[in-house]
Amino acid sequence: MNHPRQLPNSLTPYQSVELPFRTPLLSRTGWSFFMLALIAVCVVAPLLNLWLPQDSPYHMSTYAVALLGKIMCYAICALAMDLIWGYTGILSLGHGLFFAIGGYAMGMYLMRQIGLDGNYKSTLPDFMVFLDWKVLPWHWTFSDSFIATLFLIVLVPALVAFVFGYFAFRSRIKGVYFSIITQALTFAAMLLFFRNETGFGGNNGFTDFKRILDLPIATPNMRMTLFVLTGLTLLGFFLFARWLVQSKFGRVLQAIRDAESRVMFSGYNPLGYKLTIWVISAVMCGVAGALYVPQVGIINPGEMSPANSIEIAIWAAVGGRATLIGPIVGAFIVNGAKSWLTVAYPEFWLYFLGMLFIAVTLFLPNGVLGLIKKWRGSK
Questions:
Q1: Cα(266)–Cα(216) distance, rounded to whole angstroms?
Q2: Which residues touch 108 (CB under 8 Å, ≥6 apart)?
Q3: How close are the terminal C-alpha atoms of the chain, in Å?
Q4: What is the 3-state secondary structure (H, E, C) of 35-47?
Q5: Which of 69, 188, 284, 353 makes an SS bond possible with 80, Cβ 3.0 to 4.6 Å?
Q6: 196 and 290 in contact (C-beta within 8 Å)?
Q7: Which span out of 43-47, 114-118, 263-267 was modeled with the highest average pLDDT?
Q8: Residue 32, class by beta-carbon neighbours within 10 Å (0-12 exposed, 13-18 middle, 19+ buried)?
Q9: Cβ contacts of 232 within 8 Å, gap of 6 or more
């Protein structure tokens, strides 16, 4: 009589399998640093700027508020670059376009907020009166609504990124060819926005903003409000990016970065994943541009220059790709140095930037954060 064969223990159908624990969003140390950053943005900075007298050695000047607010906007762009370059392997040299689109959307609203306080006392922006325009162009239709502006800040960069990304990724354009095309795209957009007939202010762009939500924009309280909003947006995007890269979606992105052909062989279509992260990254840059404009007080086609887009990649490389926190640190390091060098040694700033990028490429392939990790591991 034949007896049924017993399954090995490893193949027992009722054997329990222990699944790995889900990685926490941040470690205990990570949450501590996050809370410190949150307190610094929401409590410490307002106290130092608004409550301490200007003659106090601990007073935070209006210049420092504007500078740090601007750098935090740049840090959002660096974080967006890390999602597509560090985690997906897509190097964009045209992300300055999405930054500028968000900035122009906000700038159009701020120009409408000027109202009759312009030089020509007209409901039209001054540059339109100067060019003898009689009515607003069609793309200014919703520019007087703050809610509509918020939607446009998100939707317009997303739409431009989706259309470009769909055809580029569908055509399987990769590597340096993709980088060159993105640079050509932002350069073409810059030339378009330089033209007066497009209705974007030509080479002067938009400036002389006076109000936002009918409140004066040049007051210390409003400047600090914009500063806090920028800091909260940066921290929120960091948590979102952290959650994204730790999810299944993020693991597929990293697999695409490392071996896209194997991902396709495993049954995944890289097109949807690459297009999604591309659009998300573009929206992040658009939001950064919208926060940047009211703090700096101007937006013009120069923000679309290829050099600005290259700088975004440099911030990510200097801080350390595929780390999320590294590009943020890189944005603060590079722009902090730029702010100091353009005043102390203005003629050497561009040389310093070029040497910094070469040094990082040759000696610090993992950026500053990689160097710190290596140093801590060797102790």
A1: 56
A2: 140, 143, 149, 206
A3: 68
A4: HHHHHHHHHHHHH
A5: 284
A6: no
A7: 43-47
A8: exposed
A9: 38, 41, 42
